Amino acid sequence: MRPNKAPVILFLFIVSALHLTGQVTISGIVTDEKSMPLTDINILIYPTGTKWLAAFTTSDNNGKYSVTVDVKYDSLDVIASSIHFVKSSHRTANKSNSVSFVLTPDVKQLESFTVKATPIEKRGDTVSYLVSAFSKTKDRTIEDVLKRMPGIEVGNNGEILYQGMPIQKFYVEGLDLMDGRYGIVSKNLPQEAVSTVEIYENHQPLRILEDKVSSQQASLNLKLKNKRTTTGTGETGIGFWPLLWNVKLTPITFTKGYQLLSSYQTNNTGNNVAKQLKSLTSEPLGRYTNFPDELRNYLSLYSTIPPEIDEDRYLNNNIHLLNFNTLIKTGKSTQIRENVYYINDYQKSESSMLRSVFIPSDTLILNERISNSYFSQVVYCNTSFENNAKNNYTKNKLSFSAQWNKSEGMFANNSNSQVKQNLTSPLKTISNDFLVIHPLHKTFLEFASYVFIDNTNQSLIVSPGSFPQILNQGDIYEATRQDVSQKTALINNEAGLRFTYKNITTKLSCGATNQIQILNSDLALIKNAIESGAGIDFQNDLSSTKTIIFFNTELELKKLGAIFKINLPISWQQVLFKNSEIQNIEQPDGWFFDPGISGYYKLHGLWTFQGSWAIINRFGYNNLQNSGYILKDFQYLIRMNTLISKSSGTRYSASVSYKNPINSIFATALYLLSNTNNNLIFKTQLDHNGSIQLDACELPNKKLAHSIQTNISKFNGDYKFTLGVKTLFSYQKGKTLLNDNLLSTSNYIFNVKPFLDIRLFSWLDCEYIINLRKLATSIDKQSIQIRNYTSHKLNLYTLLRSRHQVNLSSELYSIGNRFYNFSDVTYRYSFQKPRIDAEVSWINIFNANSFIDYQAGSFSLYETIYTLRPSQLNLSIHFSF
Length: 881
Hints:
Layout: H1 6-20, E1 24-32, E2 42-47, E3 55-58, E4 64-69, E5 75-82, E6 85-93, E7 97-98, E8 101-103, E9 120-123, E10 126-130, H2 131-134, H3 142-146, E11 152-154, E12 160-162, E13 165-166, E14 170-172, H4 183-186, E15 194-200, E16 219-224, E17 229-240, E18 244-254, E19 258-267, E20 316-329, E21 334-359, E22 362-389, E23 392-412, E24 418-424, E25 427-440, E26 443-463, H5 468-471, E27 479-501, E28 504-527, E29 530-533, E30 539-559, E31 562-567, E32 570-579, E33 584-586, E34 589-593, E35 596-603, E36 607-619, E37 626-633, E38 636-640, E39 646-660, E40 665-686, E41 692-716, E42 721-738, E43 741-761, E44 764-779, E45 782-800, E46 804-815, E47 818-831, E48 836-843, E49 850-856, E50 860-867, E51 872-880
Parallel strand pairs: 1-7, 1-8, 14-16, 38-41, 40-42
Antiparallel strand pairs: 1-4, 2-3, 2-5, 5-6, 9-10, 10-15, 11-12, 12-13, 15-16, 17-18, 17-51, 18-19, 19-20, 20-21, 21-22, 21-50, 22-23, 23-24, 23-25, 24-26, 25-26, 26-27, 27-28, 28-29, 28-30, 30-31, 30-32, 31-35, 32-33, 32-34, 35-36, 36-39, 37-38, 39-40, 40-41, 41-42, 42-43, 43-44, 44-45, 45-46, ...
């Protein structure tokens, strides 16, 4: 295919124009009176006669600085500023020249004075947030403080983003204890133990590649107040009604060479603490693109989509979590890390759903009631060794996990007929990840190896039997049993050579990936307690081998403050697919070329521009090649008995970000575009009772997706407020094959989310969040539904006297023409010594028992009524140590 090159040319033109049009460079050196270079001196540039900060930078370790300016003024004021030296200013013509400074120490002879630290400070590529400037009396953990730091976001799942992008590493005193599962640290480390939150912009986590391979991702580091910190959080509580409990004990020890975090948590209050152990970061080298996911389910219970409210409003659970993590530095650059956890979780959900299915000639309305119970046990263990030195990098990580999952479900529809579901889905996986980078003369030799093995045996029993019109000549029968067994083995080896010539770094690499997958499945009918097979069309005895041999050339060019990266990967891929039942073999193969280019440019130390373009080819889907039907749940019968899937497309991205630590303003905007061509499409055959038969068939189709995201936030230390707004616009369109009709479908989402966190008075803090969302779906250019969603969240925190605190929170939702209100109140009494808080909480004061939410599919609208947790009273004791 011949991709549209216009976005790439436009991006390169913009970057070039930014450099060539009216831009000047101011450089120099900053020294003291003894001609010694001064580091981390703020260099501020203002157009003469204005208070507008046009450019900003800091001096390096040699006292040197260089900054570009692009303003239409005759002259500029260049200021060198530091708390330890007398401020110095020079006026210069608006042209490229050198301005140097000799600073004298700033000595103040005062009887008494107060030093007020800057809440946000930038030194080089490190942005530091002073925790005490953002913390409030109500805060317990460092995550509470992170949420109001401008430029930083914390998602509902605990994921931390900086300038709209996920962080790649989460450090405590420069050490990565949790290997990406940092939620248990951010949600349990007391905020008073942390002095500073540091953001490492453009962070390269591998020391051997520093100054050689650039990175556009940021990492977060927590600086602690003490060199040795022994701390943690604990909680014990009881509630009514029904009988509720909440117990947590998380001791933490952090030193420069040893870190330990262990935790035991249990509750039945709706707090899903298992989310704290979710992996939230990706590998820095961007590996594992085609590798298996952690959890893949062929079979599932028919269920609803979670609503747009806090999970503890509706989740009925009983969870036990045991977690142990330790990291030991065995040398200056070497460390050993161990991460182990065990989860025992029971969840129950009840909901009813009005499902509207839009077909060309009619609209099918289905009224469904769903009650599901889920029980899971998970064991995970990860042992890793890492040597992260300037002259060598070695890492080996061995991981093992086992899951034992059981689920039960009850379904009822319009005619009050009931369907019972029972599912078991155990899964065992083991993997080993090895990476070494070693210098060889003036080059670097790299070798990586990844091995992955898993095994799952899943079984679903549905009573009464599903799809009688297909499986039993239209007659109702006792039950259906679907068994699926899958084994996967994957090995990936890659070797590369990296070298630098002038300002170009080149990496040449080659490797191979081989994945073997065995799938066995059988669907049986149970009649009068006797099982009988449904036939060869409902059996799978498949083996597939996917082989990829790849060669890649990576180029990185650094020129005039800009960084350009070019990726030129070439791969040969083959999929060998064998069905032992009918002895058919397919061996499709082909060569693929997936070029990509990206650019990165900093302007004045305040603006950052990024852009990328890439061609993406995918060959063969994991877990979707089955010649015989598989009953995914009692409503879905799926088969993919066709050609190997192929998809190709282009992806574009462009972003601009602005950060001004002096004025505490952070802003970012991101645009994404993807255009994908597929050779296959799922044919959906919808029955009058809502059951769906899916068959993959050969039919070329395209999918187009646009997305625009913006985020701006501002902090004011004098008035103690953080103000910001986030927006999202998403548009997607594609094709759907429904009941032999090929339909064009499209949907868009527009979301605006302003937020404010402010101290109104010395005794009153306020948080206010508005969420405005509009969702629209159309089929063949005819609008089938438009839904508006509005929510208001208000939290008031009052400090009565010195130890008494009252928290009033209220949430108001407007969805369509329905309104919902949730209100809570909490009273807290704080003991000064020891650090203990006693709390009384009344949750869901007005006893709201249901919530309605809307979701849209390609040709469906789901109006779901969720059963909520009842009003409850909780008594608890919180402590930190």
